[in-house]
Every structure is written in structure tokens, then in C-alpha cells.
């Protein structure tokens, strides 16, 4: 990463339909390890809140890396059917990081 490049972060909440919560948990969990192996992925974390919402936090080296990730067939299939899985729209945020990211690579998990 050059000094002028800044990582891209993507984070947000997903509220699954109660009858689909286990399925959404399984699908989202299945994305974690493969995504962490993708070129350009710096961090990928999945959390589950007490109220049943899922929180995703991702950091990508570049917009191109994020675009490549978003084009993967398993993620595309999930996103194309998102209304079937969720109550309401996802609450998502997409930003360029202002703080410098360590040059040493991903943070150990």
C-alpha cells in the first residue's frame, strides 16, 4: 500500500427474519474464513448482538479488492436474495479510513 492509498471499511447491521436467523447465521459464518483468505482483505469480523442483529466489520486494501469480493458467487447469491432473509433494509456504512493502517498486514485474530 502506498502512502496515498487508504483502506476501505464496510460495516453495518443485519436484522434477520426470526424464522431465518439460524440460516443467516450459518451463511454469514461461512463467509468469514474464505473472505479472510481473499487478496486485499485486511479484516473481516462477524458479531451477533443480544437483540439478534448481526454486525459485520470489513477492511479492504482498495475499492478494487472490495469489488472483487462483492462479485464472488456465494456473496452475490446471498445479496440477491437479501429481502427474503432480513427484516427491513440492512444498516450499512462504507468509508475510506482516515487513520493509517499498519503496513504489516492483517491484524491477527
From TrEMBL:
Pfam families tied to this protein: ABM
Stretches of the chain forming a coiled coil according to its record: none
Domain of life: Bacteria
InterPro entries attached to this UniProt entry: ABM_dom, AI-2_Isomerase_LsrG, Dimeric_a/b-barrel
Keyword Oxidoreductase included in the entry's annotation: yes
Presence of the UniProt keyword Magnesium in the record: no
GO molecular function, one term: monooxygenase activity
Keywords for the protein's UniProt record, in alphabetical order: Monooxygenase, Oxidoreductase
Domain ABM: 8-94
E.C. numbers: 1.-.-.-
Protein name listed in UniProt: Quinol monooxygenase
Phylogenetic placement of the source organism: Bacteria, Bacillati, Actinomycetota, Actinomycetes, Kitasatosporales
Amino acid at each position: 500500500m502506498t502512502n496515498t492509498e487508504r483502506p476501505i471499511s464496510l460495516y453495518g447491521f443485519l436484522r434477520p427474519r426470526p424464522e431465518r436467523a439460524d440460516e443467516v447465521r450459518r451463511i454469514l459464518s461461512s463467509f468469514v474464513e474464505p473472505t479472510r483468505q481473499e487478496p486485499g482483505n485486511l479484516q473481516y469480523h462477524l458479531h451477533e448482538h443480544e437483540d439478534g442483529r448481526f454486525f459485520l466489520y470489513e477492511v479492504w486494501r482498495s475499492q478494487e479488492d472490495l469489488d472483487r469480493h462483492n462479485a464472488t458467487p456465494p456473496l452475490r447469491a446471498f445479496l440477491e436474495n437479501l429481502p427474503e432473509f432480513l427484516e427491513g433494509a440492512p444498516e450499512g456504512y462504507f468509508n475510506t479510513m482516515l487513520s493509517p493502517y499498519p503496513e504489516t498486514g492483517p491484524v491477527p485474530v
